[in-house]
């Protein structure tokens, strides 16, 4: 999916919501545990209930890898289900990969060739040669970690060099030599608030993947105030607040209602920006 197609989908659905599929078998409704594949059954119901209100899904690989081979099977079935039944959805593999060049090349082959996802989160801290192998695939996206939503992000990402440039700013500036706004996005956590203005000063045209609204307490309004651009430029993720909105047999219905509520606020923000 290219940038134009992604933007057209945002306008058509009046949403820039990404539903994070952080599916923990210990948190899904108990009645699903009798299913042959509880994780996939849960994901399928969540996807069916939320697909009208979002433009992307983001399975977090840790929640599948912890299940061994069964977890990988559930992940592959989930991705295939989205591609088959909801082909307009942008699929993000939240894997945070990044290693020396030949290893990154294997990770890229895994996700872009074997699993055929649209995008992959990548850690930039081993430098250019650990990132560029992911950029060799037409129509695929690298989503580079820049300023994350967790408390510990301040430990390193906000440290300054002798010229007073913060580390996340260096990541944003240097990485533009590796990719473009047609194949590279950045992770920018919703909990970082007004620093979205600083981010936009460096990367005005790139899409940002924004975790941290909902359970982590980030403000969607603040993110939009500083982060929206003329092509929206935001994919805002919500995981726990949506997928665990309910824990009974009507869990999918409640997830759909929560996704709709977020989509309504996104629609208002897009209208205020003049995008729709």
What key attributes describe this structure?
276 residues; alpha/beta; 12 helices
Task: Characterise this structure.
With 276 residues, the chain is an alpha/beta fold. Helices cover 43% and strands 15% of the residues. It has twelve helices and eight strands. Strands 1-2-3-4-5-6-7-8 form an eight-stranded parallel β-barrel, surrounded by six helices. Strand 7, helix 10 and strand 8 form a beta-alpha-beta unit. Helix 2 runs parallel beside helix 4 and helix 2 crosses helix 12. The protein starts with a helix and ends with a helix. The model has no long low-confidence stretch (mean pLDDT 95).
The 3D shape can be described as globular
Query: How are strands sequenced across the largest beta sheet?
Result: 1-2-3-4-5-6-7-8
Structural class: alpha/beta
Radius of gyration: 18 Å
User: Which segments are poorly predicted (pLDDT under 50) over 5 or more consecutive residues?
Assistant: none
Average pLDDT level: 95
Q: Bin the helical content.
A: 40-55%
What is the CA–CA distance across the termini? Answer: 21 Å
Report the portion of residues in β strands.
5-15%
Oligomer: single chain
User: Sheet bearing the most strands, described?
Assistant: 8 strands, parallel, barrel
Order of helices and strands: HEHEHHEHEHEHHEHEHEHH
Secondary structure: number of strands: 8
Helix count equals 12
């Amino acid at each position: 999916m290219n940038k134009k197609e992604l933007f057209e989908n945002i306008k058509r659905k009046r949403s820039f919501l990404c539903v994070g599929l952080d599916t923990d078998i210990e948190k899904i409704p108990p009645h699903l545990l009798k299913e042959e594949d509880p994780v996939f059954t849960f994901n399928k119901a969540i996807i069916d209930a939320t697909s009208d209100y979002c433009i992307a899904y983001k399975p977090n690989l840790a929640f599948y890898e912890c299940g061994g081979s069964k977890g990988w099977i559930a992940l592959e079935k989930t991705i295939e289900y989205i591609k088959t039944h909801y082909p307009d959805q942008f699929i993000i593999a939240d894997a945070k990969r990044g290693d020396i060049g030949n290893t990154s090349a294997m990770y890229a082959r895994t996700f872009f060739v074997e699993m055929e996802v649209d995008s992959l989160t990548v850690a930039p801290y081993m430098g250019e040669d650990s990132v560029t192998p992911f950029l060799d695939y037409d129509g695929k996206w690298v989503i580079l970690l820049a300023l994350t939503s967790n408390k510990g992000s301040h430990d390193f990402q906000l440290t300054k060099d002798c010229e007073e440039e913060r580390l996340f700013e260096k990541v944003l500036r240097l990485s533009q030599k590796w990719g473009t706004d047609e194949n590279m996005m950045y992770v920018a956590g919703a909990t970082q608030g007004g620093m979205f203005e600083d981010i936009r000063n460096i990367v005005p045209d790139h899409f940002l993947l924004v975790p941290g609204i909902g359970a982590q307490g980030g403000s969607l309004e603040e993110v939009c105030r500083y982060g929206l651009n003329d092509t929206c430029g935001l994919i805002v993720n919500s995981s726990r607040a949506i997928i665990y909105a309910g824990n009974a047999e009507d869990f999918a219905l409640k997830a759909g209602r929560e996704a709709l509520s977020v989509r309504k606020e996104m629609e208002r923000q897009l209208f205020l920006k003049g995008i729709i």
